[in-house]
Fold:
Amino acid sequence: MSKSVVHRSLDGYRFQISGELDLAHPFTSVGRYAVDGGLYELTSGGHAAATGWTGDLGIRRFDDEFSTQNGRLRTARVRDYDKQSGLEDQLLAVVWQGRRFSMFIPMYNAKPADAVHVFQLLGVTEHEDGLTVASRNPRRAGIAEPAQLAKEVPDIGLLEMTALNKTTARRLPSWPGARLPHGELFRDTLDDDSTYFLLATPSAMVTVLPHDGGTAKVPARLGALNVETVA
Structure:
């Protein structure tokens, strides 16, 4: 019997991933939301995802904490230095923590009050399989582009999933792909000439970034994978 897991992306889509593969790794979901003219990148996942992000920023403690939407909203000020440009930005690291899942947002040149304002206009709902974020005031806030769900699968690589709809279908190549048991597979290259794959199933689109040295084996292994959106 094949293994199966279900994860929820920030825009509400639930992805069921099935196959005789190691599906135990955690997932994250990334979505970009427009709030009062600003664009913010939200990332959700298990608590470890937010802890890893703040750890990479060198945060040992938070400066402020607020209670909002059945969770804790924490902020910390960080100096973010860009080695390429030599410029330094003031970063406000924002983390919302619920029961099982967390979400983090980098906000540049912002104050804690700005983070509170974002959460006044965006509503967070925690489910058993992930977080969703929706506008509480459509005139002033909303999702800017379809959210992605990312998951590492050993022996294949990193999977980046979106629901297949009229908007995301524009990314599909114009040429026919190879037929697999659960969909159609396309192969292409990134700007750095590295290979990636695009798997289109009846309800989902999956970008596959192979592990180093494993590109040749990916098509056969993807034959054992099924990704679909479920209610």
The first helix runs from residue 47 to 56. The mean pLDDT is 94. The chain is about 10% helix and 55% strand.
